[in-house]
């Protein structure tokens, strides 16, 4: 569990089957119905977010759950020369707290926990009808990667990725350089 004092946010890891998780997953499915005309059709298994190959998080403001985000490892996805790729799933922020920094805090938490678990690349699928998600990911350093997964052949799908650790000889993509070299 971590807290982000900048927005008063507490992020807890919960099982995918937890009632709070399931309630928020249902909300995001309804969001997809509004935006795309139907729920997300990608298959989800109860165990896909179980450690050590995944994790599901819920962000709380006080006792109120306001956002979700998860990652799971993907052995079948190649992107950005990654050797251990994880995929972000179920990023969702309730409408009442959008544009408050919650999504950025959850995304940073997903990046940190996936990296701690050994991932060197994070990938995700999103769509053109989620322009705010596209802006968040692009402003956070995510770049286009080859299409993968359930929405691989969908023209409105966007597949993005980000290196969490540098390739040998490269600067760290997550942490800025420090010291004299960084000030030049």
Describe the structure.
With 184 residues, this protein is of the alpha+beta class. The chain has one domain (2-168): Gcn5-related N-acetyltransferase (GNAT) (Aminopeptidase, 3-Layer(aba) Sandwich). It is built from four helices and eight strands, in the order ββαβββαβαββα. Strands 1-2-3-4-5-6-8-7 form an eight-stranded mixed β-sheet, sandwiched between helices. The chain is globular. The relative contact order is 0.15. The model is unreliable at 3-7 and 177-184 (pLDDT under 50).
**Are there runs of 5+ residues with pLDDT below 50, and where?**
3-7, 177-184
**Main sheet: strands, sense, barrel:** 8 strands, mixed
Shape: globular
CATH class: Alpha Beta
Distance between the termini: 37 Å
Within CATH, the superfamily carries the name Gcn5-related N-acetyltransferase (GNAT)
Q: Which structural class is indicated by helix and strand composition?
A: alpha+beta
Number of domains: 1
Count of separate DSSP helical elements = 4
Calculate the mean pLDDT score and round it: 90
Order of helices and strands: EEHEEEHEHEEH
Would you report the number of β strands? 8
Helicity range of the residues? 25-40%
Residues in β-strands, percent:
25-35%
Topology, element by element:
Elements: E1 2-4, E2 9-13, H1 19-36, E3 54-61, E4 64-74, E5 85-93, H2 102-116, E6 121-127, H3 131-139, E7 143-144, E8 157-163, H4 180-183
Parallel strand pairs: 5-6
Antiparallel strand pairs: 1-2, 2-3, 3-4, 4-5, 6-8, 7-8
How would you briefly describe this protein structure?
The chain has helices at residues 19-36, 102-116, 131-139, 180-183, and strands spanning 2-4, 9-13, 54-61, 64-74, 85-93, 121-127, 143-144, 157-163. It is α+β, with helices and mostly antiparallel strands and 184 residues long.
